[in-house]
Automatic annotation (TrEMBL):
Keywords: Plasmid. Residues 14-109 form the HTH arsR-type domain. This is ArsR family transcriptional regulator. GO terms for molecular function: cadmium ion sensor activity; DNA binding; DNA-binding transcription factor activity; lead ion binding. Gene3D superfamilies: Winged helix-like DNA-binding domain superfamily/Winged helix DNA-binding domain. NCBIfam families: HTH_metalloreg. GO terms for biological process: response to cadmium ion; response to lead ion. It holds the Pfam family HTH_5.
Amino acid sequence: MGSSQRHPLNDEAPVPRLEQAMSGVAAAIADPSRVAILCALMDGRAWTATELSTVADIAPSTASGHLSRLMQHGLIVCLSQGRHRYYRLAGHEIAGLLENLMGVSMSPRRVPEPGTPVHLRQARTCYDHLAGELAVKMYAFMLAQQWLTPEGDALTVEGRQHFAALGVPLALKPRRKVCCPCLDWSERRYHLGGEAGAALLTRFVEQGWFVRTPGYREILVTPAGRTALHRYFGIDTVYPD
């Protein structure tokens, strides 16, 4: 009497879920245009679909389909900033996977260059807090020194102590989040938003370390500001006032 059960190695047997997932990821990567998109995102920044279509040399409509496929398999994530949507790698483990693949079979690909004017890339306001390359460096320092939680959504006890030493006032019962990572549209990395970000900018202006340009978003760094940035944030390279 024959058995109705299939042999576990039979070609028609169900494919284990892990193998299906691995196959899906491999298929998502196995396209030159999607590989070009992933390689462009290896610099850690977030880019728009239009920018990624340029670096992959494909039409924006085609890029949209590729981005959906990459998101479906957890390789990239989409970030919304106002009316704009940006895409970045889903995490360090994805970057590690791509780096290993590059080491085996690929040379580095070109990445898109931001078109933001230089004077705005350096330092500017983002509503009520600091943005630009300088703000991104400050945020990275605060994360590294554990002033912020790993998600960047709250100050640690040590962070509050450092803000107090800087003379930055923080409300006991704020009407909004104390901290939030805000995606910088020129650097495509995060800077500090929320109440803490606004209070930090206000304090730097009050101290004469930063100077607002009336009617514009540009922020100028004074010589005293350069000293303060080095002292409190370990930033040596700043821009002329």
